[in-house]
Every structure is written in C-alpha cells, then in structure tokens.
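Re: that chain you flagged

S.,

Sorry for the slow reply, it's been a week of failed gels. I finally had a moment to sit down with the sequence you sent. For the record, here it is as I used it:
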Amino acid sequence: MEELIDEKIELAKTLPSKYYLDEKIFKKIKSKISLMWHFSAHENQLSDKNIVPIKHSKKLMNESIVLTRDGVIRSLSNVCSHRGMIINTESTKSNVLKCKYHGRTFDLKGCMKNMPKFDHVMDFPNDSDNLKCFSTIRWKGLLFTSLKEISTPGWIEFLEDRMGWLDIEAFVHDSEYYKSYNINANWALYVDNYLEGFHIPYVHSDLNEVLSYEDYETEIFENGVLQIGIAKDDEDSFDLPKISKDYGKKIAAYYFWIFPGLMLNFYPWGLSVNLVVPTSVNKTEIIYQRYIADASLIGEGAGGDLDKVEREDQEIVEAVQIGVSSSSYDRGRYSPSMEKGVHHFHRILTKI
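Prediction finished late last night. Pasting the structure tokens below so you have them in one place:
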C-alpha cells in the first residue's frame, strides 16, 4: 500500500489540505490522540498541595483528572462515582477527596471511604464506587498521564539521553504564569509551524537576532522532534557540563516536540511547557506554563519575549488556514534541510 507521506523527504508531498479542513478527519484524529500520553504537571506543583486538579485534562483527554500525592503520585478521575460531580476544582492539602454535592469521600488512592445516607444500599461499596486510576509516569519531576494502560514511551529515553544532566526536578512552578491563546486555525498547522526554523528570519526578527540561523539543528526520534537553537555572539546560552552530548556548543534553546501537541522548551532560565489543544477543525487553544530554574535570566536570549513570538506565529498560522482552504492549493513539497521535523510529524499523523 502506497504511503500518503513518502518516507523519502526528497520525494514526499506535504499533508493534503483536507487534514486541516475536514471535520470527520479532525474528530477521528482527536479521539485517538486523547488516549496517548499527555503532560500533567511538575511534581513541584504538589510540594505544598497534595491534591491538584489538572485544568487542561478535560480539553486534551476528555477526562477530568486530579493528581494526588501520599508518597506516590497518582492520576485519578476527578468525577464522583455517585452522580458525576467534579470533586476538586482547586489545589488543596488534605487526606481525602470530598465531593461537595453529597459528601462522598475517597482516600488519596481513589478508594471510597464514606457515603452519607447509604446505610441500606445492597452490594455497596464495590469497585465501581472507587475513582478510576490512570497510568502515570514521571521523568525528572515531569508527570505524564494516559487514559490507557500503555508502555512507557520511547521518547522518555531520548529526553533522558539528551537532558539527563539538567536538574529539572529542582525547577519551581510559576503559579502566576498561565497563559492561553485561541487561534483560528487547525492544531496541526500550529504544530507544522513549530517544527521548523525555516520561517525564523521572515517571521521572528527579534528571535533571529539571538539565534544563528545557519547553525539551527533538527533531530527526529520516536514520536518526537528536537530542534536546537544556537546562540549568536554573547547571547544567553546553557553552561553545558562535559557529560552533555552537546558539550562545547553554544546552545540558546532546546525545543522538544512530543506527539501529538506537547512542546518542552528549555532555556537557560528554565522550562516553558506549551500544550496544543485541538478545539475544533479550525480552532486551537495554546496553553503556556513555565517552570523556573534561574529567575534572573527570564526575558533574556531565545527565551525572552515569548508573547511576541506567539503573536507572530499566530498571525502566520491563521493566514495559512485561510490559504489551505483555497481550491488552488492541496499539497506542497518539503525542504529536506529545514522541514524534516514537519515531514516526521506528517508521517506519524497519517499512520495513527
């Protein structure tokens, strides 16, 4: 069977425009990606609160999820097993989860402990009265959740190999920084734009001043892409230890993308986590959170004015959404040197 996206980038045509426009294709893809691994939080968010609802889980996974910590961090359903009430809407510190509707309580493992006025109910409680527990993995303090019982993803090994030297566990969640942008474009167009440095000189003039365009690097790995921005002259860069695979390079930023829409952007000041939320076939929400290693470096270098970069990207992506709906366009071609990340994404997307 002929592949929609040829394995050889030199021969391949880009994603057909229907992937950005067709409602049925959008719904099919969203139903599948909702069951994959998704970023939940950094464990620092549970340092003084041991019950933390994940705001974006409903949007990404169609499931309201709460993280609990009692020595072990778990991803639990945040929906009461009695009548479906959302249990926790705010982070808190407690030994139990308690439903505000009728008082049903659960321990931090999700087991039901008490329910008022249920004295004469037969065959109660049973397993269906507990909160469902979902798969959770941790990498250097970052927590990921999946609704399915699936194996640890291969991209964890790649992240460890590349960034294992960085003390991400010590990063501090910036609770005041939570930004959301709504874009009138398909989510895949936003990912396309992220996955190449091709457009930087044309779209991001300020970013182009701090990154060396000719030295921009792209690597692909299982279900992911790494882009490396090399700093110009005296611009901020990582102080890389000898154990780093990139020792000797003047790296301003590591841009990791994990399928479907997780972006882990490491800068000398810390980590920006960007979540791409498919809202509808032509609307997308982008959620920004950040985790700080050195607050004195915020606003400097490639990780400086991220709001400006986001606005510039949004303008481009919305214009492309209009363009791909034109009867005069269906597919283009890839630049083998600049768009191998986009090519990799398209091959993954057309195979799920």
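What I noticed first: The first strand starts at residue 38 and ends at 42.

Talk soon,
D.
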